[in-house]
Amino acid sequence: MAEYEIRDVSLAPSGHEKIEWVRSHMPLLYGLEEEFRKTKPFKGVKISLSVHLEAKTAYLCLVLAAGGAQMYVTGSNVLSTQDDVAAALVDDGLSVFAYHGATQEEYNHHIERTLSQKPNIIIDDGGDLVGMLHTARPDLAEEVWGGCEETTTGVIRLKAMDDEGVLKFPMVAVNDARCKHLFDNRYGTGQSVWDSIMRNTNLIIAGKTVVVVGYGWCGRGIAMRADALGAQVIVTEVDPVKAIEARMDGYSVMPMKQAAPKGDIFVSATGCCKTITVDDMLLMKDQAILTNAGHFNCEVDMDDLEKKAVSKKEVRHNIMGYTLSNGRRVDVIGEGRLVNIATADGHPAEIMDMSFAVQALSALYIKEHHNELKPHVIHVTDQIDDAVARRKLAAWGTEIDELTDEQKKYLHSWNL
Predict the structure, then answer these.
(1) 138-168, pLDDT tens digit by residue?
(2) Which listed site, 42, 140, 349, 414, has its alpha carbon 20 to 30 Å from 188?
(3) Which neighbouring-strand residues pair with 49?
């Protein structure tokens, strides 16, 4: 029998409509749903999932449930859960523990409830499920075969655990798959971040100076779209190679202390902490806009800002204005949380179609191979990456060439 802890089951109709919309734009997951419905590869398998709980995630949950999985679902951010979508999943018989605007204590409670059924497979986004299994509730890790991690921040945490030798089960670094980070992180983040900033501020981007903190795949996408919208782009980096790449891509590169007085809009996308500090803010223009595109709300140093701001007030829905000691104001979107999902709808459906197809097939890989796998961070197999790419091309009706036997032999030869 399904369990749930959500706001209001009566919200389900609007949630179903959202899910149906993304289903019609996610052909890879739709194909997997049809296959899983027939083969039931997850029959009897318990899956606990913590991913931003909106329509695309909900559809992934329904695809896995169609394959026979018993799903236990929560969100991965207190502002990204959409209550109507959570209600729709409950209406479809899934166990859901999440609601929008939960306190940190409530959020932790939901994580624990999601783990309480002793899942066989974990699907995580940011590492909170795995973190609780290794700290507060190690007793719940006994039945876990392994799992999948969706995002850069979570993979960073997992690799740290792996390096220390404390990881209790294998975790697939879904984020590192080519069909994930090359498209989701770059094109998905690039589009959805600016969707959120524009819908929440109702300001033009053209002519403004945008400071992008970090030039990984997310930063590349954010900078690319800002440039296309007519902004001047500055990149700050700590990696000299990425800094060279940003410069060669046509952007200005400088330290934050030099960038701070120049920027109109700041977007951090690093997976690290305190990339924009109060000292940086004191150098900024009046009403500079601050956003975070990393998983946790520590990239913009919100804790220190809350302590040192002279005053604060909501200046627009989802935007809090903080007056600093020098009399200038900085405007923070979405409490410094993941801007594209906390205050908008996240990545486009077609992008998440690829990422979640990798998730579903990686979960299946864990189910079929967990007895052979060691408790380490493992790569998505080339076979899964290739299969997802070919499904995507087929959905577009696009064909590509194939190597001939002679070419294959040539590529695997050394004595030419």
Answers:
(1) 999 989 999 999 999 999 999 999 999 999 9
(2) 42
(3) 73, 123
Overall average pLDDT of the 182-187 stretch: 96
Over range 25-31, report the average pLDDT: 98
Query: Would you say residue 306 has pLDDT above 90?
Result: yes
Q: What is the predicted pLDDT for the residue at 1?
A: 62
Over residues 363-369, mean pLDDT: 98
> Distances in Å between the alpha carbon of 390 and those of 179, 217, 385?
10, 22, 9
In percent, the amount of the chain with pLDDT more than 70 equals 100
Whether the Cβ atoms of residue 46 and residue 121 lie closer than 8 Å to each other: yes
Question: Contacts from 255-258 at CB under 8 Å and sequence distance 24+?
Answer: 256/211, 256/213, 256/280, 257/283
Domains and CATH numbers, the chain: 4-180+346-396 (3.40.50.1480), 187-342 (3.40.50.720)
How many Cβ atoms sit within 10 Å of the Cβ of residue 403?
10
Q: Which of 284, 343, 341 is nearest to 314 (CA)?
A: 343
The DSSP result for 109-120, as a single string, is HHHHHHHTT--S
- pLDDT (average), residues 173-183: 96
**pLDDT above 70 (res 238):** yes
Count Cα neighbours of 210 within 13 Å in the Cβ-side half-sphere: 31
Whole-number Å distance between alpha carbons of 123 and 47? 7
Largest CA distance in the chain: 72
Written as six digits, the tokens of 114 are 């999601």
In DSSP terms, which residues pair with 210 in a beta bridge?
A: 233, 265
What number of other Cβ atoms are within 10 A of residue 258's Cβ? Answer: 13
Q: What is the DSSP string of 89-158?
A: HHHTT-EEE--TT--HHHHHHHHHHHHTT--SEEEESSSHHHHHHHTT-GGGGTT--EEEE-SHHHHHHH
pLDDT (0 to 100) of residue 173: 98
| Rounded Cα distance, 257 and 233, in Å | 15
